Amino acid sequence: MNLFYYASPHTFAPLAAQLVPWCFRLAVLLTLVGLFIGLVMAPTDFQQGDAYRIIFIHVPAAWMSMIIYLVMAFWAAVGLAFRARLASMLALALAPTGALMTLIALFTGAIWGKPTWGTYWVWDARLTSELILLFLYLGFLSLHGAIEDTRRADRSAAVLAIVGVVNVPIIYFSVRWWNTLHQGASVTLTQAPSMATIMFAAMMIMTFAFWAYCIGAALLRCLHLIRLRELEAGSSVNPLPPVLVRELR
Amino acid sequence: MIYWSSLSDFIAMGGYGGFVWSAFGLTALTIILEIGQLWWQRKQLEEAERGQR
Known about the structure:
The structure holds 2 protein chains of 2 kinds. By secondary structure, chain A is mainly α. Chain A is built from 8 helices and no strands.
């Protein structure tokens, strides 16, 4: 099989269109299971009380916010290096969902912070770098939206995305490099998780739910972008509604 | 299997109900808003595609 077969929007679109409904179905199913285990079955945490249950959305959203950024920057870089239209479209399609995950991580963290730390917000390294991540996503989207020519917009936004990658390890390692109010990682690749099995199970199921949702949402948005670009290509007679162009570009 | 002894216990979340439910509620709301945005885009695209044909 040719590795670049799906690099063309015409071959990618039917595949993506088939995947999207399955991603959303899987996301709903996993969310129901994850929330049931996390909210109904899991016991109260002996230190943080029931406020700890916010981790079942806070941690998956925070992970997704960083992973989506890396994936977005990767596709933006591929689009920049190989002038691959689809790669740039994927990057653009990922940005709003990534921004949403960052926003969720920030506000669920703030709501959790109030009962556990006594404050909604502190300018701690973890919180500040996550806020910068939100600004990077918004900057990527506004820069892209501000440039009329799509190819130029793709290239300029890609440079911003690539430079911003440096922020991701800063977020991840901030709790180790600096003395933060934010707690350290309970789950790492190298060590057994320092939390009860049932809590860990709920968190992982919710993480998979978030993965499925984000993939579905980004693929759907990418399909919309493909349709918009096709419309633009044939729009000399019939101008497109400007609101649609603004929305998607 | 169910940790809670009553529905009101579940809702109260050991006194943290306001925090827990607002975090989950706001998350659901923002995700619904994103789905709404995607759905709205689709409507607009379908309309534009009809106009072009």
